[in-house]
Design goal:
Number of strands: 5
Number of domains: 1
CATH topology: Heat Shock Protein 90
Strand content: 25-35%
CATH superfamily: Histidine kinase-like ATPase, C-terminal domain
Distance between the termini: 31 Å
Shape: globular
Number of helices: 4
Strand order of the largest sheet: 1-2-3-5-4
Order of helices and strands: HEHEEHHEE
Structural class: alpha+beta
Radius of gyration: 14 Å
Length: about 140
C-alpha cells in the first residue's frame, strides 16, 4: 500500500511493542488488513496519517488501523455495522466495490474474530479487530 499512500503524501506508521502471535488463516487476515489500510488511505486527505498497530489484550490480540481522514457520520456508521453493501468515493475520487468490509467481517468471523469501527466526522476513524492469541 506504500505507492497508494505516497501518491497522496500520507504518512504511515506501525505501532507495536513486541512480537505478538495469533492463531488465524494468514491469507484471510492479510486480506482484512490490506482492505482496512486501503480504505484508510482512500478516505484520508493528502498529507494525512494512517497508523497500524497491534496490542495483546488477555487472550486476544487487537489489530487496528487508525487514520486522520474524513470520519464517518452516525447514519453511515450504522449502515456499515449492519454489514450492508455500501460504497462511496474517496478523498481523491477513488472508487471501490463496497464489498470489502463485508468480506473482512466474514473472514474475521471464520477466524474467531470481530470487527469494530469508531469514528467522528472530521476527526478520522479507527477500524480494529480482535483475534484469539496463539496459545
Amino acid at each position: 500500500m506504500h505507492l497508494q499512500a505516497e501518491a497522496k503524501k500520507i504518512h504511515t506508521s506501525i505501532k507495536s511493542d513486541n512480537s505478538i502471535f495469533i492463531s488465524a488463516d494468514k491469507d484471510m487476515i492479510s486480506l482484512v488488513l490490506r482492505n482496512l489500510v486501503s480504505n484508510a488511505i482512500k478516505f484520508t486527505p493528502e498529507a494525512g496519517t494512517v497508523s497500524v498497530g497491534v496490542a495483546l489484550q488477555d487472550r486476544f490480540v487487537e489489530i487496528y488501523v487508525e487514520d486522520s481522514g474524513l470520519g464517518i457520520d452516525e447514519d453511515t456508521l450504522e449502515k456499515l455495522n449492519q454489514n450492508n453493501y455500501y460504497s462511496t468515493k474517496g478523498t481523491a475520487s477513488e472508487s471501490g466495490t463496497g464489498l470489502g468490509l463485508m468480506l473482512c467481517r466474514e473472514f474475521l468471523t471464520k477466524n474467531g474474530g470481530q470487527l469494530f469501527i469508531e469514528s467522528k466526522p472530521g476527526k478520522g476513524s479507527t477500524f480494529s479487530f480482535i483475534l484469539p492469541a496463539a496459545a
